[in-house]
Amino acid sequence: MYFLKIIILFVIQSRINLPIFIIVGCEATFKFEDEPSDKSVKIGKDHSLSCLVSGIINEKLTWFKDGTEIGLTESTDNRISIANNEIGLYGNFTTLVIDNVIASDAGLYQCVAISPTTGSVVYSSSGALLTILTLPSPEYPICFEPDSDIIAGLTVKLTCVSEKVHPPVTLKFTRNSQLVNTRISLTGKGNLVTLELTMTTTKNDNGDIYECHQNSSLDSNYQKSCMIKPLNIQYKPEIKIQHTNPVLPGRETILFCQTFANPPVIHYQWKSVPQLKVEDISIDGTGQVLKLLRPSLTHSGTNITCIATNEIGQVSSSIELHVSQTVRNAENSNNPHESTSNQMTEMSSKEIRLSLDVVIIIAAGVVIIVVLVVLVPVYHYCLCRNNNTTTFDSSGKEVTQPEVYYEAREGVILRHTIQDRSLPRVPTTAVYGHWRHSTASQVPNDLESHSYTYIDREND
Question: Cβ neighbours of residue 235 under 8 Å, at least 6 residues apart?
Fold first, then answer.
């Protein structure tokens, strides 16, 4: 093959500015000078793929997706278009334009030359993978709940499903808002990705809330989740018999069959060995409470059993009855199902042990009495008593100032007059006259908190 010349052409297409190198010879050979390449495009954006071919004669240039020719029909919604530029003997330039890409646009694209006579593919470029960056559909994630009733000890699977997208989403389980990292598997099938949590249930799982959280690196603010309703773990009853130990002869005693179960206990039953007489016991309407009406020393050593039944199963627990004349600290029964007995205080006629609360109350009362009876009067006496004040007259002679002293009438300022008052007639006489009097003043030491007290005294 002999080339006559090399022509460099610059083809400016309406959407892409790309320098094009076309080699033209007198005997041209078909060749892809420029092929489409792999791209990742965010959903909603526009994208184009281009292809430059030299040596084409009568072949038709078109585009294939995933091995199928792209047909420009109404179903494409005018989003996809193909533009071909023929440059005569110099070559052909074709462009595939996709507007507002959607998730279904993802795939393998090829530039293809088709024979005009046979319609078969003559030449095809290497494939260009178009990846659409997107978030899962709004309905994802979807949580699949296990059976509503789960019996303790069985293995269950909690499942969370999302859509397979690019970039892949991150799925994780939380239990009561705490991240779960164990017994988790992530699998993909078709267009879905599945997260599974396998667990062996116990009664402690009852009521737990699991959530599946979905995140994507495409949007740091994106987060969605689905929740599995609280687990309903069913289990057989657990029993604790609450009772007083030891039992006092002749004193009514209550035995309470305390149970923990899901679903609740539907039937209680009491048994005793040797059998207690019917007139010595009383059972309430629920069957949960047994009363020993008149316990006696002969009942000591009796084995009493409570049997509780629910829809899952039946469980029993037993205690040995201790009847004693002396109230003493009782040790716990060896039965692992029996509850801790009530502790009783040892009492006798010679010794009474008071509780700590009683001692504190008595001590507080004594302190209050001491404060009221002793400290308050002493404080009041020290604070309020009036002491004689020693002073000196104009000559320097020491004078003791009494608490009560008298002033001459000339120096006394009365309310209405400085001199003698004019008062009504003298009793038992018809004579009006002046009464002569003087005034005494009592002055306390703490003048800031007291006022003067004036005392009028009659003179002869």
Answer: 151, 152, 203, 206, 261, 262, 312
**Domains held by the chain: number:** 4
Give the domain range for residue 437. Answer: 390-458
345 belongs to a structural domain: no
pLDDT per position as a tens digit, 222-236: 999 999 999 999 999
Query: For residue 256, what is the enclosing H or E element?
Result: strand 253-262
Report whether 253 contacts 321 (CB < 8 A): no
Residue 423, C-beta contacts closer than 8 angstroms, at least 6 positions apart = 434, 435
- Give me the CATH number covering residue 300: 2.60.40.10
Taking alpha carbons only, the member of 146, 148, 150 closest to residue 233 is: 150
DSSP 277-317: PGGGEEE-TTS-EEEESS--GGGTT-EEEEEEE-SS-EEEE
CA distances from 129 to 65, 81, 452 (A): 10, 18, 112
Query: Beta strands 150-151 and 170-175: pairing type?
Result: unpaired
pTM: 0.56
Q: Which tokens sit at 310?
A: 């629910």
Contact 327, 347 (CB under 8 A): yes
* Number of neighbours of residue 112 by Cβ within 10 angstroms: 21
What is the gyration radius of the CA atoms in the chain, in angstroms?
Answer: 54
Spatial contact of 37 and 51, defined as CB atoms under 8 Å apart: no
pLDDT tens digits, residue range 443-459? Answer: 555 444 444 444 444 44
440, β-bridge pairs: 406, 455
What is the per-residue pLDDT across 312-341, written as a single tens digit (0 to 9) for each? 999 999 999 999 877 554 444 444 444 433
Alpha carbons within 13 angstroms on the beta-carbon side of residue 434 total 7
